[in-house]
Amino acid sequence: MSQPQTSERLAEIHAENIGGIDDTTVSLSSGVTALTGRNATNRTSLLRALMGALGSDRVSLKGDADKGRIELTLGGEDDSIYTRTLAREDGTVVMGGEPYLEDSEGADLFAFLLENNEARQAVARGEDLREVIMRPVDTDAIQAEIRQLETQKRDLDEQLDRLESLDDQLPDLERQRTQLEDQIEDKRTELDEKEAAIEDADSTVDDTREQKAEFEDALDDLQEARSDLDDIRYRLDTERESIQALEDEREGIRTELQEMSETPAGDLSDIDAEIDHLREHKQSLESTISQLQRVLQFNEEMLEGDSPELQQALQNTTDSGSADEGALTDQLLADEGETTVCWTCGSEVERETIDETLESLRSLREEKSHERNDLRSELDELTTKRSELQADRDRRERLDRKLDEIDREIDDRESTVAELTDEQQELEDEINDLEADVEALEAEEHSELLDLHKEANQLEFELGRLKNDLEDVTDEIETVEADLDERENLEKERTTFQEELADLRTRIEQLEAQAVEEFNEHMQTILEILAYENIERIWIERAERTVREGRRKVQRGVFDLHIVRNTDEDATYEDTIEHLSESEREVTGLVFALAGYLVHNLYETLPFIVVDSLEALDSDRIAALVEYFEEYAEYLVVALLPEDAVALDGQHHRLNEI
């Protein structure tokens, strides 16, 4: 994997009324910045402020403030400024501004790695990791592309069906051409013989030139009239054949319309209403999830001591107790895991009781997240159904329009047939008169030569008609062959569509398999950096299970996490996340989240990675991890206790005051 190359530039973050921060401005250099200090020093608040400016909604407004603001300036040739505003409106906090990211979902999962990061927590709770891993992948776009390709393929199928009928006509047309060529050859031979007889007769018969010229003129007029009549008959045949073809096509369309299922307007409107309802429900769930997240975030900050409200609560407790209990932060650390002051009622409660309440809230958040995911699936199903119904309706409308066009064309061609029939009758009357004239001339002066000329004239007429027929058949064959030549291209195009559809339909599965493979590779690399002797390997395995999606049960891939451990005797065995200690779960969750940062290439679109709560790692492992990810992130901001920061490279920027 190629690693990003970055140039040195300064970033400045300014925060007002964010978390536990009143007002601060902090500069961050390219590379690693270690926020070093004890709890209750606003390190987490600063990290959340940075996350907010980058696009995350997981940032809180100071408890006693109505408005807050974050501003991130990235230095360079032209400074870029990104903002985030927070304001209380009707009991909720409304966010605005222009942050770095329009969509922070991937970053929230794999770049903003605080203690309550969803990816880290999903591992710690032993959840199916597929939804977490695949969430940044835009599968809706894939489904839309599938529907578009299916429509294009249907159009190609219709064109190829039409060409298939042309293919059946081609052998008959070729036989007809061969027969016409043979007839023309026979007729030409007969005419040559007749012209030779005329030449012989010319040398022995002395007809008057005037009589011969008059007779030939009469024959020419008769031949021209017969030729015109032949053209009229051909046009009539063509028009009648076209009318028959149109009537057949009309009958086929009517049959197809009868076979198509009706799509009442109510069906689509009902589905639209249901989609709107589900979207509103989904938005409501997302709002609930967001509120739960803020409640959890606030309470976690209170437990961490990174909040002015908690400081005041502890100060009140200190004032009512011994004056020699020590510094405020030391109190918090000493009481952690035992009792603490409830920031809601002011009474002293067991820390475990608060943890249990928070776990219940996390479970509720998880339940709402699953419900939201089910709604997403149901929405996808309804959207697909709506697209199919709309496609049927569009197809019916196209067929109705085609029927109207065919009816109009049949009317036009029937009018043309009526006109041609009148012309045919007029020409037949004219030909009868011309034939009478020729017969009269023959009666006046009958001769063998005149008979020969008459016969030759008739042969020329018949030969000309055959040539016209041959030309028409040849043109029709060339048209059919040109269409059939296009069939090969259409078939190739349809094959391409079929392949693209097959690829798209398996794209999600392929993306899942690729994501699993990359996660496993990166997790192994990170584990090797951490060098845990009792953890040999952590990997994800993709499996198929029957799950509910909306109202249906479908086969879907799930991602199971496996852990191979080492014993003191160098034996290995497979374990599960449930059997790991709390610190081992935290490490595993961190490894998973960091791997996600690399798998989804977040360093290509986001210059920051934010990390907190590394207490489960010793200082040397923290230093090794920081050094590895320094090569990917332009800015790596990590919150560390002073004793954990000592192992970092001395050249790294340290920030001790916020």
UniProtKB/TrEMBL annotation:
<comment type="similarity">
    <text>Belongs to the Sph1/Sph2 family.</text>
</comment>
<keyword id="KW-0614">Plasmid</keyword>
<keyword id="KW-0175">Coiled coil</keyword>
<dbReference type="GO" id="GO:0006302">
    <property type="term" value="P:double-strand break repair"/>
</dbReference>
<feature type="coiled-coil region">
    <location>
        <begin position="139"/>
        <end position="302"/>
    </location>
</feature>
<protein>
    <submittedName>
        <fullName>AAA family ATPase</fullName>
    </submittedName>
</protein>
<dbReference type="GO" id="GO:0016887">
    <property type="term" value="F:ATP hydrolysis activity"/>
</dbReference>
<dbReference type="InterPro" id="IPR027417">
    <property type="entry name" value="P-loop_NTPase"/>
</dbReference>
<feature type="coiled-coil region">
    <location>
        <begin position="354"/>
        <end position="521"/>
    </location>
</feature>
